[in-house]
Structure formats: C-alpha cells, structure tokens
Design goal:
Its EC number is 1.2.1.9. The chain is 41% helix and 21% strand. It is α/β, with parallel strands linked by helices. Strand 10, helix 7 and strand 11 form a beta-alpha-beta unit. Helix 3 runs antiparallel to helix 5, helix 3 crosses helix 7 and helix 4 packs across helix 5. The structure holds glyceraldehyde-3-phosphate.
Length: 509
C-alpha cells in the first residue's frame, strides 16, 4: 500500500516537473500568448530577486509592445466565441482549473516563498484559497449571470403600456488584470475567474516579484484547456509596457491592485470601467471596555502577518489613554514571541519584498525616532529583514501616523476620546478598512457609521476575506467594489432589448 502511494507521488512529481518544463527556456520563464509559451523577440529578460538572499532567483521575459498588441488582438478574437459559450461550460472549465491549481499547490507555493518571501504556510494557504475562490466564482456566475429582468412600460408621458424591456448582463470584452506582489496568485484569480465566467477574455500583467508563481498559476488555466488566446500573460518592465497596456484601445476594463500606480492609471486610462484596490492606513480603535487580550492578539496578527505587507494590515493603533499602558504591554509580550527569519522556516517575520521597501520603512522609523516616538523594541535590520517594532506615543506630526510602511512597524497613538480617534481616521487620505474593539455593540455600530472606511470590523482585525465578501476602499484606497459577486457584476454591462408592440386598435380592459 505504502509503495503504491509512494509510486503515485513520484509519478505526480515527475508529471508536474515535465509539464512545467515547457514554460522555461535557457533558464528564463516564457510568457503565455495565444495558447502557447513563448520567448520574447526583445531578447531581454527581467530578473526576479529573492528578497531573502537578494540574489536573482528567476528570470522572466521582457515582453515588448508588439507582443502586447498580439495578446490583446488574440484576446479580442477569442472573446467573441467565448461570450457565446454556454455558461455551464465556462463554469465547468473553471472548476477544472480549481482542481488543477490545488494539485499544483506545492510548486506554486514554493515560488511564492522564493519570490516574495511569503512564509511557507501562508504561501500554501494562498494557493488553496485561490482554488476555492475559482470554484465559488463558477457557482456564483451561474446564479448571477443566468438571471435577466423583464420590465413592463409605465405611464411616463407619451408612453402607452406597449413597451417591454428585457435586460441581461453582457461581457465587457478584454479585461486587463494587474495583481500586486503580495498576492500574485490570489489577487490574480480574483480578477481572472470573474472575468472569464462573465464571458470576457483576459490579459494578465503580473508583478515582477511574483511573476513566476503567476505564470505557474496561468499554466493551470492552460492545462484546463481554455480556448487559445482567451487568456494570456505578459511579463516585463512596467516602464516599457505598463502605460502601453493600460492605455491600449483594445482593453475594455482594468482591474488593478497595488499602490499609488493605481492613481496614475486611473488618470491615464480611457473610458473603461476601473476596479482599483490601492493602499490603506487601517486604524484599530481600542475602547476602554474592550477585551484587551483579544485586541492585543488581533493587533499582532493584523499588524505583523506577512510582515505587515497587506493593504488590510493594522497600520495604526488608536487607544484610549487610560488603558494604553496595559494594551501596549500585552502587545509587546506577543511581539516577543514572533519568530524572525527566512520564509522557508515558516518564520512569522520574513524579509520585506525589496531593498527599496526596506529603505522606505527605515525612513519612517528614523523620522519617528527624531520626533520622539517611544521605541518598544530596538530597531534592527539585516538586509531586507526588519525585526518587528512597536512605536508608542506616536504623534500626528510624525510621518508614520499617516503613511503606510508596508512592513513590520506599527505605530500606537494614545487618544483622549472616541471622537479624537474618528477624527484621526477620517483625516487620512485612505479609507480602506478599520476596526473597533469594544463590548458595547451599539457604540461599535455608531462608530463604524462615523468612520469613512470601505469596511469596518467589530472585534477583529481588518481582512479582505472571506473572498466572496464585498471589499472596497473609499478615497485614495480604491474605485469600485470587489468580492466575487461584485467583480462579476463589475465585469459586465446591462444590455436591454425593448419589444415595442403596435398600438392596440381597441381599448383594453
Ligand atoms: O493586500 C491586500 C489584500 O487585498 C489583503 O488581503 O486581507 O486577505 O490579507 P488579506
């Protein structure tokens, strides 16, 4: 029995290694266009730097504008027949992808560990979560897209009751998906699956850090057998193909997750629907009556998981002065238990994605130091690895009170009243998520109502998931709303067909 299982595992490993081999040539990963893995005619490649070793881990093709033109054209052609493919058939293919993705969890998760230093267990979860998302999307698509509306005319002036309107949802055309480095697989499929189920075609431009995990994920779509050209993936430098992609007349919708680049894209993109998830300065308000152990656990989990590199990370703690000492002590006790080191060892705190990010985080820490913040731990950095740091007694004149470090550094601002906390939250140019800790649910709901945030969590840290929940940011945190159902709706347009009956020659009723 054991031998049988071992042989099967061995065979599966060999199969996986063989199928992935078609994606690489001369140690450079190919890009995916019109159903084939290709080498760019640019003859150039882009290195993917391992954040832990700071050495080149992989190389991907530096696609040029002509190759972008080609994928968009094949996406345009393939979309026409895909839109006529029965909904159940589209759903069936997505279910197949979900299963293949889960079978390939290990190699994809390994790439996440190497490319973006995601702790091994979180990398594994990202792939499994992505498979679940795709399956849910296939099911939801059948429910949402299988329905239409029927409207009967009403007595607006000049209208007889002779008009009947049938509405249905139609695809937009070619969707451009640009996911961020921190979830190159999950935030890619959260765009790809809704686009495809709705009858769109899709072009993916993954981030360079995370591109190889994204290409492996794309390979799962390739194995599932989607029509040629329906889905493609171009890699390369944003400076060479970024604007060309986002301003391309063949793109009919853009779904982007990332930072400030999203604001620039929204200014340059043409008249196409945009879905943007940008930054956040997610505030955590702790009231006097809260369960401080629960609050401390959530602050540490919310603030430091994946080293704070999540748009939904807790990015500022606003605590009522009278309980601040107790809360800070509890948080510090938990920070001491966090493990720091390489992602392969499943450490809680791993190197941040680039040296440039580490330098930016350090600049915020030094600014806070110069202006008198209280350091609960000693500031420590080796390469891209930054040890977790709680900064107490942060004031509004410090940059860290407003900017998002996207790293394992968390500011605590001591406040005199709930009103002061709300004022601080609402003065931010971000409005992604926030959270409140209190045992008084009535108060929590009133505070939630006053906070200018896309989502407010009561007694838990901010989070995007579960993936079918609506997810949106106000102000500079985004445009539109995500979550499986919202994304399907966003990637469609309502189409009406109006039936006009001849005026009756006799009086009805
Ligand atoms: O970084 C942005 C992500 O949307 C955060 O997702 O809350 O599941 O970590 P998460």
């Amino acid at each position: 029995m054991c031998l049988f299982i071992y042989t099967n595992i061995l065979q599966l490993t060999v199969v996986i290694a063989t199928v992935f081999a078609e994606m690489v040539e001369n140690e450079v990963f190919k890009y995916y266009s019109n159903g084939e893995w290709k080498v760019s005619s640019s003859g150039k490649c882009v290195p993917v730097i391992n954040p832990t070793t700071r050495k080149t881990q992989y190389k991907v093709q530096a696609c040029n504008q002509e190759e972008v033109d080609n994928v968009i054209e094949s996406a345009r052609v393939a979309q026409k027949s895909w839109a006529k493919t029965p909904l159940w058939k589209r759903a069936e293919l997505l279910h197949k992808v979900a299963a293949i993705l889960k079978q390939h969890t290990k190699p994809i998760a390994d790439c996440l560990v190497k490319e973006i230093a995601k702790p091994a267990k979180d990398a594994h979860t990202e792939v499994v979560r992505s498979g679940d998302l795709v399956s849910y999307c296939a099911e939801e698509g059948i429910r949402v897209l299988g329905k239409g509306n029927y409207l009967v005319s009403d007595s607006f002036p000049g209208n007889e009751r002779t008009k009947y309107c049938l509405t249905s949802k139609i695809p937009l055309g070619v969707v451009l998906a640009i996911p961020p480095f921190n979830y190159p697989v999950n935030l890619a499929v959260s765009k790809i699956a809704p686009a495809l189920i709705a009858g769109n075609s899709l072009v993916l431009k993954p981030p360079t850090q995370g591109a190889v995990a994204a290409l492996h994920m794309m390979h799962c779509f390739h194995l599932a057998g989607f029509p040629k050209g329906l889905i493609s993936c171009v890699t390369g430098k944003g400076s060479e193909i970024g604007d060309f992609l986002t301003m391309h007349p063949g793109i009919n919708c853009i779904s982007f997750t990332g930072g400030d680049t999203g604001i620039a894209i929204s200014k340059k993109a043409g008249m196409v629907p945009l879905q943007m998830e940008l930054g956040g300065k997610d505030a955590c308000i702790i009231l006097e009556d809260s369960d401080l152990d629960l609050a401390a656990s959530n602050i540490v989990k919310g603030g430091f998981s994946y080293s704070g590199q999540r748009c939904t990370a807790v990015k500022v703690v606003l605590v009522i002065e009278s309980i601040a000492d107790t809360l800070v002590k509890k948080v510090n006790e938990k920070i001491e238990k966090l493990t720091v080191g390489p992602p392969e060892d499943n450490c809680d705190i791993t190197p941040v994605v680039t040296e440039c990010s580490a330098n930016f985080i350090e600049s915020l820490v030094m600014d806070a130091k110069q202006k008198g913040a209280k350091f609960c731990q000693e500031y420590r950095r080796e390469g891209n690895l930054i040890w977790p740091l709680l900064l107490d007694c942060v004031r509004s004149d410090m940059r860290i009170a407003w900017e998002e470090p996207f790293g394992p550094v968390l500011p605590v601002i001591r406040i005199g009243s709930v009103e002061e906390a709300i004022r601080h939250c609402n003065a931010s140019n971000f409005g992604l998520q926030g959270c409140i800790f209190t045992k008084d649910i009535n108060k929590a709901i009133l505070i939630s109502d006053a906070m200018e945030m896309g989502t407010v969590q009561i007694n838990s840290a901010p989070a995007r998931g579960p993936d079918h929940f609506p997810f949106q940011g106000l102000k500079d945190s985004g445009i539109g709303s995500q979550g499986i159902t919202n994304s399907i709706n966003m990637m469609t347009k309502v189409k009406s067909t109006v039936i006009n009956l001849p005026a009756p020659s006799y009086t009805m009723g």
